[in-house]
Amino acid sequence: MDSQEWDQRYAGRGLVWTAEPNRFVVAELQNLAPGRALDVGAGEGRNAVWLASRGWQVTAVDFSAVGLDKGRRLAEDQGVAVEWVCADVRGYQPEPASFQLVLVAYLQLRDTELDGVLRRAVTALAPGGVLLVVGHDVTNLTEGTGGPQDPAVLHTPESVARSLRDLTVVRAERVRRPVAGSPRDAVDTLVRAIRPVAVGQ
Is 23 contained in some domain? Predict the structure, then answer.
């Protein structure tokens, strides 16, 4: 889907997604000390706003201006500040070595496009910084529910981890997420990695 299609999807009054942060984002990041965070493909901003509420200085990037407008309203309602950047993440170049956290949540791109996004995400991390990638897993087609039905834009832990050169991967696995109204869980890829701190830093 291009930016216009996402603008149309986000055009209704209510949120397409919930205002609550993703469960895996909370579980993996709630104990981190806040610093600068980059939310890549932020959509309506639910994860960015949650991070900001916990003291992070957040930059949220997405190519849907309509989605970002909803994020701004959500941030205002919760009394937090987020820097909103309207840009296509497939070409967006973040500041190098500037973020203690980079989040890529449910950015469903083909492997070659996602690889480019993740490589730039890696360069954005400061030493000791954390990169968290969560997205629909390819096995969701047969074992899960919902999500995109095109296997070309679905993840595996292995395919994501391959793009994270120069990082130490500390978790790369499939995780299950309950879906309201469905007897089956959704299956997601979750990869967490850290930029090593060089000796003497």
Answer: yes
